[in-house]
Amino acid sequence: MGKAAVPPSVTNLIQTFSELPGVGPKTASRLAFYLLRGKSDLALRLATALQDLVERTRFCSICYNVTEADPCPICADPARDHASVCVVEEPLDMLALERTDQYAGVYHVLHGALSPLEGIFAEDLRIAELETRIRQGDVSEVILATNPTSEGDYTAAYLVQRIKTIGTRVTRLGRGLPMGGDLEYADAVTLTRALESRQEL
Questions:
Q1: pTM of the entire structure?
Q2: Which residue positions in the chain have pLDDT lower than 70?
Q3: Phi and psi at residue 135, in whole multiples of 5°?
Q4: Taking all residues of the chain, what is their mean pLDDT, rounded to a whole number?
Q5: Omega into 71 within 30° of 0, i.e. cis?
Q6: N or C terminus of the chain with fewer C-beta within 10 Å?
Q7: Closest-CA residue to 87 (of 108, 117, 61)
Q8: Pair (151, 82) in one structural domain
Q9: 30 and 121 share a domain?
Q10: What is the three-class DSSP state of 43?
Q11: Distance (Å, rounded) from C-alpha 3 to C-alpha 12?
Q12: How many Å apart are CA 155 and CA 73, to the nearest integer?
């Protein structure tokens, strides 16, 4: 099918879908034509949901989790242990840890991991904000919950050096997690064991 046979609005939607992670050109085309074929209001509901996402969400000014209220519900909860800060790469990692129902502290979301080969450096992550938070707050322990990947290990090693100069205790999740895996895909039992077996760094 030539480009001229596809309306520009459909081509634009396919190109936009293909920019999403894990979505190739074929999947993007299938998604676009599924929305066109659908007799329901799915396309309109998707458009509304995306508009709400853009207009209503922001980053928590304390932990940088995605939220609609600032501070986020976890940071605003006085029952949480604010002296314990668990550092994760992405909001999905935080959600995975929350599902264990075993951690009562608060979080700090880096929004990525250090990867010089991909051009991701300390200034691209929320590392300076973490340091400021530790210096200004009453933080007694920083738990590094970066993913057990080469980038996650590099990020953890870098954070240990920076945080140790502040004088705060630093621990890392135990190795109940498989090397090369992501926290967001780990089951609750594995994450619970990793929390319980965290090690001093």
A1: 0.77
A2: 1-4, 175-182, 185-187, 189, 193, 197, 199, 201
A3: -65, -35
A4: 89
A5: yes
A6: N
A7: 108
A8: yes
A9: no
A10: helix
A11: 11
A12: 27
